[in-house]
Structure formats: C-alpha cells, structure tokens
Design a protein that fits this description.
Strand content: under 5%
Oligomer: single chain
Distance between the termini: 124 Å
Mean pLDDT: 86
Structural class: mainly alpha
Order of helices and strands: HHHHHH
Largest sheet: none
C-alpha cells in the first residue's frame, strides 16, 4: 500500500510538473507572439519611414529638375519677350510664371502681340530659334508630366494654365510665320 501511495504521489508530482511545464510553455508562446507582433509593427514603421524618406528624396530631385527645366524655359523665352518689349508680371511668383503671365497678359490687352511675334519669328533667326527651343522644352515637360501624372490633374493644370496658353500663342505665331 505504501508503495501505491508513493507511486500516486510521484504520478501527481509528474502530472503537476507537466501541467506547470505546459503553463510555462503557453506563457512563453504568448510572449513570443507579442514579440513577433512588435517586430512586425516595427518593420512596418521602418518600411513607412523608408518610403517617406524615399518620397522626400524623390520630391527634392523633382524640385531640382523642375527648377532646371523652368530655367531653360525662361532662358529661351526671355529674348522673345525682350524683342517684343514685354515685361514679366510684378508678382512674387517664380520667374517663369511671371514671364509667361506677362506675355499672356500683354496678348490679352493687345492681340497685335501675335502679329509682332509672328514677324519677329519670321525676320529674326535668333528669336525663331529661341521660340523653337521654348516649344521643344515645354512639350518635353508636358509629355513627362502626362506620363508621370496618373490622374491627369497636374498635366491639365499646366496645359490649361500659363504654360499651355503660351505654347499655343507661340505655336500659332510660328505657324503664321511659316505660311
């Protein structure tokens, strides 16, 4: 009998040990799941930060490239504006938009600007070259925008805005000069 009690006690101790080991294993399993969730959340946060930094760097590169394109457009439009004796707008905008705005404002006040522009393009090869370069750079910018702009809002803004109006005006003058 004493032997049976000892066996039962040993079995009880073994069962209690197994239950304790299961409880510890379950506790460790829940802690491992918490650590795994924390690591997944941290990886997601790191991924978002990486994407944000990549987007910020891309935005900086786009701004730098846009400034180069804007300067090319201004550089080609300035001699044309000087030939027509048209001044840029007096606003706080970028020089390109002030220059384009001055041209469109002057055309709005005086439609004879188209004829002056036509004559300048026809009679002055430097003005014709600058007009061609302006149109080529503007077309390249608009094509690039339309390729990169998924919803078309930015492209429409440029096409319908001062750039598009100026491109239309110079294109008309160029076509009139050639005919």
């Amino acid at each position: 009998m004493d032997f049976n009690i000892i066996i039962l006690i040993c079995l009880g101790i073994i069962a209690a040990g197994i239950i304790a080991a299961l409880a510890v294993a379950m506790g460790m399993n829940s802690k491992i799941k918490l650590v795994a969730r924390a690591i997944a959340a941290q990886n997601a946060a790191i991924s978002k930060m990486r994407d944000a930094l990549r987007d910020r760097a891309a935005t900086g590169a786009i701004a730098e490239n846009a400034e180069i394109v804007y300067q090319d457009l201004v550089q080609n439009l300035t001699p044309v504006m000087a030939e027509l004796d048209i001044k840029p707008r007096d606003t706080a905008e970028h020089l390109l938009w002030r220059t384009l705005g001055g041209l469109i404002d002057e055309y709005g006040k005086n439609p004879f600007v188209l004829e002056q522009l036509r004559r300048s393009i026809k009679l002055n090869s430097a003005i014709a070259r600058n007009a061609d370069l302006f149109l080529a750079h503007a077309d390249k910018l608009l094509r690039h925008l339309s390729a990169a702009d998924t919803d078309g809002l930015l492209t429409a803004t440029f096409t319908d805005g001062l750039l598009g109006q100026s491109v239309t005006l110079l294109t008309q003058a160029k076509q009139l000069a050639q005919s």
